[in-house]
Amino acid sequence: MKLRRRMTLLAVTIAATPLALASCTAEWKPGDRAAEGRAAPPELTVTPVDRAKDVPISAEVGTAVKGGRITDVRITDDKGKQIQAEPREDGSAWVPSAPLQPKRTYTAEVTATGDSGATTTRRTTFTTMPKSTKPAITSTLYFADKRTYGTAMPVTVAFDPPIPEEARADVQRRLFVKTDPPQPGAWSWVSDGSQVYYRAPDFWRPGTTISVRAAIEGLPIGKDKVGDEDRKATSKIGRQVALEVDNATKQMSVFRDGKLIRKIPVSLGKPSTPTSSGKMVIMEKHEYATFDTRGEPNGGYVVDVEDAQRLTWGGEFIHAAPWSEGDQGNTNVSHGCTNVSSSAADWLMGVTQVGDLVTFKGTEVELTEGNGWTAWNVSWDEFVKGSALPVPAGLRPAPSQAPHPGAVAGGSPAPVPSVQGG
């Protein structure tokens, strides 16, 4: 059964023609130029409906106009304070810049102007619901404020518990991304609903500023849960860096701005604990880390490592492994991680960024969906199929070819609390 939004209250369409004109219709005669030139004001519909109660704090002011355009929206609370809001791109609603407060009364005054200059103004007053007692779905925004990320950085929001399929469209409508300079993009859900990714068809352009808002606080999700809180961040995209690891040669190729700058010998996962093949994204960087695999399959050890870069939630890292330097370039001996020399690991830490793409090929197993930020591990055509909302027409076609990891630029479980690897 399709989920209905609680905030989608009965809309009231206001008649375009003032009531005083209703009796004039019968007296109009052909040739009456004053009547012919009289312009009807636009028809305007506003939601929530006037005097609505128990409106979610995630409410938006819906606006629909016929015969004109919205020219002014003013939202105030019951103390007269103006509420900042921004219009949706399609003009269907104005979204408050922060969640509304529970058990408060708000007034929205909306004006629409027709092509002739005639205006219609409507006012609606509504009261928000008390603070919800329903369990909250925990959200995590993997896009921090005031950082610099690699050109493959997907905006990732994770949910615990996962979002059921019938509620994903409502959640996705409350996820906002702005880029400067503008670059189109789309959201795509991991099949189990635990993560949703936003990316462009190609890599982000270096220097792009990305602003994100996951505005789900108080949002009804399914029948018995609500969103936990609003999360915002604005960061920039840095230089173009990509890594490519080939199991056949046991070599890592490092690209910067599309040019090969270094090759590094590696030792990957041995046959019993193989490294995954696929497109990964650097998720974390640690100068020092402790891998504790006690209780894990094929684990049972604790080891301190330096210069570790996380690639998957399952514990695949690139890290310094001085104990395997004799095997690097010829034999796989790790527990799934990518072993490099201490000097190479230190050098990589100075070159890479969180958000850089790392591509592995030729290993015994394929990367599992959602094991890390796997937004790039599918074609663009497959990626947009994961959207819970229609994708704009201009974004539907696939790029002519998948971007090469070294090309210049033009989601599963919540993160484990302890660092794992091998």
From TrEMBL:
SUPFAM superfamilies reported for this sequence: L,D-transpeptidase catalytic domain-like
Comp. bias intervals (Basic and acidic residues): 78-91
A GO MF label: acyltransferase activity
GO CC terms in record: extracellular region
Domain L,D-TPase catalytic: 241-368
Classification via PANTHER family: L,D-TRANSPEPTIDASE, L,D-TRANSPEPTIDASE YCIB-RELATED
Protein's name according to its UniProt entry: L,D-TPase catalytic domain-containing protein
Pfam families: Big_10, YkuD
GO biological process, one term: cell wall organization
Disordered as annotated region, ranges: 78-99, 395-422
Signal peptide residue numbers: 1-22
Gene3D superfamilies named in the record: 2.60.40.3710, 2.60.40.3780, L,D-transpeptidase catalytic domain-like (2.40.440.10)
Keyword Hydrolase: no
Keyword Acyltransferase part of the UniProt annotation: yes
